[in-house]
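Input.
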Amino acid sequence: MKPLAILASVMVLAVAAPLAHGAIPADPRGGETIQFNVYRGNSSFGTHEVRFSRSGEELTAEISVRLRAGVGPLTVFRYEHDSVERWRGGQLVTLEGETLKDGDRFPVAAARNGSGIVSEGVLPEGERHTEELPRDIIPSSHWRGYEEDLRRILNTEHGDAMEVTITDMGMEQIEADGGTIQARRIRLEGTLTVDLWYDENGFWAGCEFEARGQRIRYVRQANPAA
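Output.
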């Protein structure tokens, strides 16, 4: 897995399985948005947004990531990710997305069938693939949190299954929403180690990891439930 796979990759109803000890899953309402400013070191690196809408029992999350690093007007790194997830009854129904990374495009499409989730995507080497994943697999979009006993998640960048280890690190204060808040820290370990934070309502509140020798940090701009 490439360093930015988890990033982009980062809608479950309250009846979903419990998350890491003491945490609750977010139950977004239509019109709510999670918006982060992203920093590379102390420099602005871009934005990451998750927008929620509802239609009857269906919950939709639209995800948009825009990252750029440059020297003056020269762009040396560009990353864009757009995806749409549709959920019903606490389970993923469909996922469609595309990632643009350093000029290469990686489309992904996943949909529930009778026995599981059929996912199609393009691996980093350019090979197209199709695989059937468990019906209850969770995408790597981060917004809904992760169970501690989780061992695989759906890579929203390439459409394959990623092996992971989830650890609950407990409560702590983080920078968010124009000040500081209490949030639960979850560590997701794969090829890359990512720390994720979730607030008292279960909403994704922060993110931090290292990639290419740089510290990447997400700062949430406002409480979606406010």
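Confidence is low (pLDDT under 50) at residues 1-22.
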